[in-house]
Write a structure and sequence with these properties.
The protein is an alpha/beta fold and 316 residues long. The protein has helices at residues 29-45, 58-62, 74-83, 96-99, 103-114, 136-146, 165-173, 177-184, 200-204, 289-315, and strands spanning 2-4, 17-21, 48-54, 88-92, 117-123, 149-153, 157-158, 161-162, 188-195, 209-212, 222-230, 236-244, 255-260, 271-281.
Length: 316
């Protein structure tokens, strides 16, 4: 997938293209429905399937005190968009100057002149232009003047719930990772560098792999059934993960500690992804390290049983 990170980098005469516009945080089932329509339309009309998205998130520039932590990094977003068949992504830096474009300027200068858009797909609640003055009706009306068509894609629902990044974020903050997975269409994950812990686990409880969390959202403090992947290879381990402050040992700051349920062979991975599958229990303080170790081993037995069921479903 080609990635353009500035308007100046886009070659003159780019297009013709089919474009969708949005933040696409999480690239959830609703976003995936839009991508399918973009790709199918582009193939049918001999156009380039494209995505316009932003880094940083517009809210981080316009409303920094209200900006939410993101579900995924820009790199993870690009990776998922590429798997959905998107050919080109315009990952543009959002700025107040960009936000000051009127709806007409955005449609004319960006969509038509720069992207060569022939068709534009957006969500039904799409807003654009200075102070979000433009809506889908204006986008479509401008298209009649500029030579593109616009289509609004309706929301996706799962088990009576509207799929949205906000809903997924709410589930993660409540520890409801399985519900978040349902809206995402797959496991939610965090990625990061493997770092050294304080050695407490290997000495007093059970050995763990410690992940350095980035600036994105973390789930509610607690214990989760997880799956861990090494990003530099194909190694995958069933696992169980604790997110929290290690209250038994008076820990400070949030840590992500993962216990691998299968033998660990080879060198320690440098970068891992931890996929969160199921909530187990709240993090709590134990009177002794031995009591904590006993609880962890009970958690592990439950996690092994769940992984056995999940692995059987994947095989069949």
């Amino acid at each position: 997938m080609r990635v353009f990170r500035s308007l100046d980098a886009i070659p003159p005469g780019f297009g013709p293209s089919v474009v969708t516009i949005g933040n696409f945080d999480g690239v959830h089932l609703g976003h995936q429905q839009i991508m399918r329509q973009v790709v199918e339309t582009a193939q049918a009309t001999n156009c380039i399937p494209c995505v316009l998205t932003f880094d940083p998130h517009p809210a981080q520039i316009l409303f920094p005190d209200r900006a939410k932590r993101l579900l995924m990094t820009p790199e993870m977003r690009l990776e998922k968009l590429a798997k959905l068949g998107i050919d080109t992504c315009f990952l543009l830096p959002f700025s107040r100057e960009f936000a000051a474009l009127t709806p007409g300027e955005f449609a004319g200068k960006i969509l038509r002149e720069t992207f060569g858009a022939k068709q534009v797909f957006v969500g039904e609640d799409f807003r654009f232009g200075h102070q979000q003055m433009g809506d889908f009706s204006e986008l479509a009306a401008l298209g009649l003047e500029l030579g593109y068509t616009a289509a609004a894609v309706g929301a996706v629902c799962r088990r009576g719930e509207r799929v949205s990044s906000t809903a997924i974020r709410r589930h993660l903050e409540a520890g409801e990772v399985s519900r978040a997975c349902r809206l995402l269409g797959g496991p939610w994950e965090i990625r990061g560098e493997v770092v050294s812990g304080q050695g407490i686990g290997s000495k007093q409880t059970v050995p763990t792999v410690n992940l350095l969390p980035g600036g994105g959202i973390l789930p509610r403090n607690g214990v989760y059934v997880t799956r861990t992947r090494e990003l530099e290879s194909t190694r995958v381990w069933d696992s169980i993960t604790n997110v929290g402050t290690r209250p038994t040992f008076a820990g400070e700051g949030i840590t992500v500690e993962t216990f691998l349920l299968s033998p660990f062979d080879g060198v320690t991975p440098g970068q891992i992804a931890v996929e969160f599958l199921r909530w187990v229990r709240e993090e709590r303080r134990f009177e002794t390290p031995e009591a904590l170790k006993s609880q962890i081993l009970r958690d592990v037995r439950g996690a092994v049983r769940l992984h056995q069921r999940l692995n059987k479903l994947r095989v069949t």
